[in-house]
Amino acid sequence: MAIQSMTGFARHEGEAPGCRYVWELRSVNGKGLDLRLRLPPGFEALEQPVRKAAAAELSRGNVQITLSVSGTAPAMEAVVNETALEAVIELVNRLGERIDARKPALDGLLNIRGVLEFRDPELSDADRTTRDEAVLAGFVAALGELKAMRLSEGAALNRVLRDQIDRIEAFTLAVEADPSRSPEAIRARLADQVSALMDTGAGLDRDRLHMEAALIATKADLREEIDRLKAHVEAARTLIEGEGGAGRRLDFLAQEFNRETNTICSKSNAASVTAIGLDLKVLIDQFREQIQNLE
């Protein structure tokens, strides 16, 4: 699976027995996978299957999942309260033995409070199961659309990140090739520093100065930092072109890029190398900002 962004949106509509439904999925950056569900009353049984399906396809991101439902059958159904009706009829019959009165008509009986009730139609267990399966299938379709969008965003990020890694490599090679790093330039710079100290007439020991100069030259060498930057560049390329979520590992590599660049800047004794190091730090910050969007 190619790299994917954590940003995406999907909307899927459909019909199920007794209702129309709409799934809306919104995904943004997150350290882990955080699923937030909003389900209407009567659809609580879908929560666990929805979480399981989402966790199987997504590994990171804050995902808002909303289900909206509207009825396709009549919103209400009329139901006679048989107990209340029997009680009214019994009362009418009992009073009819004592009072000469016309028997009440049907519409009169139904108008008595509590005899006729209106309520939402109830689904049978079989119909409810069929409905839930259809709505869940709609969620799986919406999840597929969300993943497709995240993959599309990931492909765009892939191109940006590859370009940034190429530029990081170019800056690294520029540091490596800088004239200030040639052995001749280093010897000449140290010789000038030693000569300046000797000219002060402070009675400094020349052999000791040369030893200290050699130690300083060793500490100032950027070979290890350059080699590590090159290795990190290759590792980043492998992750970007590899399978599965690479966001966390690329974030770690961005920290390593930054660490090596900071060391180069601190060890640099040439303005040209320092300038390249500063440009490299800006580029690494941009790289790290982009990978915050990766799963």
Automatic annotation (TrEMBL):
Give yes or no: UniProt keyword Protein transport.
no
Endoribonuclease YicC-like N-terminal domain residues are 3-158
Q: Which cofactor does it need?
A: a divalent metal cation
For the keyword Iron-sulfur, the answer is: no
Coiled coil (UniProt feature): 212-239
The UniProt keywords, alphabetically, are:
Coiled coil, Endonuclease, Hydrolase, Nuclease
Task: Give the source's domain of life in one word.
Answer: Bacteria
Q: Name one GO molecular function term.
A: hydrolase activity
Domain Endoribonuclease YicC-like C-terminal as annotated: residue spans:
180-295
Query: By its UniProt entry, which PANTHER family does this protein fall under?
Result: UPF0701 PROTEIN YICC
Name the protein family.
Belongs to the YicC/YloC family.
* Protein name as it appears in the record: TIGR00255 family protein
Q: What is the lineage of its organism?
A: Bacteria, Pseudomonadati, Pseudomonadota, Alphaproteobacteria, Hyphomicrobiales
